[in-house]
């Protein structure tokens, strides 16, 4: 015996509106799966937002606006991150080695301070 899954319309779904009690946003969806996904994603968004301070929120929003307006950029950034991760390359500068790659005091005569004679 086989059973055929019922469609959302056959099980009483026409549409449902989710209204967030925290921020008031409303989302209307037409399937139960879409409703569950909407509630979950919105809840996750609140969780992330609550963990950020105002500066981090501004930065995240700026980055998202840039990336979401250019899907090709998002794909390339993810590919770059994956390549960096696989090759062990990161965005961290090399470790400081005194005398090799660190700034040194300028000992030229133009850097000396004039001293008054006593």
TrEMBL record:
Chain residue ranges for the region called Disordered: 85-118
Top-level lineage group: Bacteria
Compositional bias annotation for Polar residues: 101-118
InterPro entries in alphabetical order: DUF6237
Identification of the protein by name: Uncharacterized protein
């Amino acid at each position: 015996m086989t059973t055929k899954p019922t469609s959302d319309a056959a099980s009483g779904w026409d549409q449902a509106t989710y209204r967030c009690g925290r921020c008031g946003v409303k989302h209307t969806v037409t399937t139960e799966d879409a409703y569950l996904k909407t509630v979950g994603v919105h809840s996750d968004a609140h969780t992330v937002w609550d963990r950020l301070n105002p500066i981090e929120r501004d930065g995240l929003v700026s980055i998202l606006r840039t990336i979401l307006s250019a899907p090709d950029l998002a794909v390339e950034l993810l590919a770059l991150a994956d390549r960096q991760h696989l090759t062990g390359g990161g965005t961290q500068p090399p470790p400081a080695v005194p005398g090799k790659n660190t700034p040194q005091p300028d000992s030229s005569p133009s850097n000396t301070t004039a001293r008054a004679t006593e």
